[in-house]
Automatic annotation (TrEMBL):
Pfam family, one: OCD_Mu_crystall
InterPro entries hit by this protein: NAD(P)-bd_dom_sf (IPR036291), ODC_Mu_crystall (IPR003462), ODC_N (IPR023401)
Species this chain originates from: Komagataella pastoris (Yeast)
UniProt name for this protein: BA75_02450T0
Domain of life of the organism encoding this protein: Eukaryota
Length: 333
């Protein structure tokens, strides 16, 4: 059995190139396609509360068998992903879930992004705006910059100047040729202009008041919006006008799960399922065109996160770690 600490997971993911990201995408898309055909691959999760924390246990029965265990407390979210042999239950590996969770969520967003902008040349406005400053924001921007090197400007919009500056510095250490801007969330008159000139917009902030507004979007050239921050029915990252614009034009919103989205995505609570489409469905064919399901220049993706994503991407990371001799090997577990 192989054990991957947080630093081990980060080591495996260090120095990713477009080819490796696409390899990860294929594995993740395959698991989501299996889930699309058979939603029972994700059994109902167990949620239990104690005085100090909330504990979640989320199994997955896809090609890779495993479980994500997560605890949310005043110290944030911490947990592990375990993988088992599907035939006899022999433990295969355990991974720290922190970086894995951020990476697999950003990877899922890139499944939608890659269908929106198939090549780097498809992006005409070379700016990217991200709302948020945590690991999710970092990985969303990092993967986008690797896949689309023509992006020249990253705009960070955040509640806190300090944590926003940290994200900018972390990104600068890896992408020195990109220019960066930092704006505060309480300055909408400033960041609205940044949103308008961005081809790619990521929402990575849990919020009850939408920061991404239709009036700020460019509707004359293609704009991709990837949302992952809000995770409860009363939370919204994008305003109702944006949703109404997409629905009224008979366009589909890209999601990871019909069932879980309706429970967790505040933006989509009133949206009929006929205006949603799962990523696992659109990735089943290489010939899929975003224009076949979207009649506007605005493309919206909402990822709520699924255990099958953790387990499939975790299995891929575990396999790579084994080949690179990274992690702690326990022979007689």
């Amino acid at each position: 059995m192989l054990v991957l600490r947080e630093k081990d997971v980060q080591e495996v993911l260090k120095g990713l190139d477009p080819k490796e990201i696409k390899e990860f995408q294929v594995e993740l898309a395959s698991s989501l396609a299996d889930y699309n055909k058979n939603p029972s691959l994700i059994p109902q999760r167990i949620v239990a509360s104690t005085d100090a924390a909330v504990h979640l246990f989320m199994p997955s029965l896809g090609k890779n068998i495993g479980l994500k265990a997560l605890t949310g407390s005043s110290h944030g979210f911490k947990g592990i992903v375990t993988l088992l042999d599907g035939d006899d239950g022999t433990p295969i590996g355990i991974l720290n879930a922190s970086t894995l969770t951020a990476f697999r969520t950003a990877l899922a967003t890139t499944l939608a992004l890659s269908k929106t902008f198939k090549t780097d040349d498809d992006i005409d406005r070379k700016a990217l705006t991200v709302f948020g400053s945590g690991p999710q924001a970092f990985w969303h921007v990092k993967l986008a910059l690797i896949l689309y090197p023509s992006v020249t400007t990253v705009i960070v919009v955040n509640r806190s100047q300090e944590s926003g500056a940290k994200l900018v510095n972390d990104l600068k250490s890896e992408f020195q040729t990109v220019s960066y801007e930092l704006h505060l969330l309480n300055e909408p008159e400033v960041y609205s202009k940044a949103v308008h000139r961005s081809s790619i917009i990521f929402g990575c902030i849990p919020s009850t008041e939408p920061a991404i507004k239709f009036k700020d979007l460019s509707t004359t050239s293609k704009t991709f919006i990837g949302l992952i921050g809000s995770y409860k029915p009363h939370m919204k990252e994008v305003d109702d006008e944006t949703i109404d614009f997409l629905v009224s034009s008979n366009s589909k919103i890209l999601i990871d799960s019909y069932e879980h989205t309706k429970h967790e995505a505040g933006e989509l609570q009133s949206v009929d399922t006929k205006y949603l489409i799962e990523l696992g469905e659109i990735w089943e064919t290489d010939s899929f065109s975003i224009e076949s399901v979207n009649n506007t220049p605005v493309v919206l993706s909402k990822i709520v996160g699924l255990s099958i994503m953790d387990v499939s991407v975790g299995a891929d990371i575990l396999s790579r770690a084994s080949k690179l001799h990274i992690g702690i090997n326990i022979d007689d577990f």
